[in-house]
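Ligand-bound model needed. iron/sulfur cluster.
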Amino acid sequence: MNDLVKKYDIQGPRYTSYPPVPFWTGAPGVEQWISDIRRSYNRDTGVDLYIHIPYCYSICHYCGCNRVEVKDNSGEDHYVSMLLKEWGNYCEELGDIKVNSVHFGGGTPTFLSPKSFDIILTTLKANSDDAFIGSVELHPNVTRREHLTTFKKHGLERISIGVQDLNDDVLESVNRNATIAEITDLYKMARNLNFESINFDLIYGLPHQTTESMKKTFDQVLELRPDMIAYYSFAFVPWKMTNQKKIEESALPGPELKKELFHYGSEKLKETGYLTIGLDHFALDSNFLGKAMLNKTLKRNFMGYVDQKSNITLGLGPSAISNTPYSFSQNQKTIELYYQSIERTCDTPRFINGHGLSTQDQKASKVIHDVMCNGIADISSFNIESDELEEMKRDGLLNIDNKTIIMTPVGMPFVRNVAMLFDHYLDGAGTKNMFSKTV
Ligand code: SF4
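Prediction:
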């Protein structure tokens, strides 16, 4: 395994979109964007909403998200009114659209008060039906019981708790302050309220992590037994995220230890009854993501692995990304420019970035999506005589059966390397300092 890690530990995209963001060529015009939504829209599956809450009370050194540090909630009411205005703009442009699901991400979604969630969800759910699915990311430091009861009231049944690690030294070194007691209390409160799904986010590759410290973290996590665990590789990109410059680089685990941490965690989760979902998610078979994996209906987007039915995501809030099968668009990134774009003042463009997918993009997107989600992809539409593919086969990462790639369990952690073979944007383009390491 260590030889494979050495060989395949290169920089490459995480493929939460195809093409990856650095290769986007610019946002479609607003008319084109609305037309792309109209031609992709299906009343049965509706649209999925991603709502970005960009505020945090303190910044974690590892963070790679778009967020701002604030000391109080003085901007909250105005922010909520702008989110609703953005949604109102879409309703005006598209008419009666059905909301299939809502996901709140951040930043720190529970920076908002329960009352604000009540206002937002009452508005959005006026366009939904009984099949509505709701999910939210929770920071253990700032989530109260009233948040949870508000989520239950509105059918937000899927919650995700940002645990990251349970070792004090590790957490302190990355400026993350949640304690095991706070996490356990929040978890138990949520269990008592019978949420459909509770996820823990964990990260490997953080400073001071060792196999021993990770064993302890997993023992504590598995005692609680969440329904899902996302076990993310830390993407160290200090040239892009200046907050990561505060991380002591010499305390970071090297590639071999990092791989060992992943191997330990993934084996432990398999032994204790969790299914492996794609690259880095694990779920009980009773959980919605476990079912989607077994039914081969998994999807992958900026939120990771999901079971969305709709093929349209509308992102609300600064930096939020929207997509249809034909295009991506990204809202203005700063809060100020976002407000201007929603109020339609100062000629601020609605989107700061985006991409229209060519036919070649759509073809590559399908193979990359299938291999990343299900570990299997039909490559018959590719004229690929790749020595690298044959080499990966010899290394035991995959099998090729009649123009179909089938990843092996050994190969799945290297699935990004396989996906890269079908990415025409990487042809001849240096990836140095554009992406994090694949392993
Ligand atoms: S990791 Fe989460 S809580 Fe920490 S700074 Fe980033 S968005 Fe905020």
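The chain has a mean pLDDT of 93.
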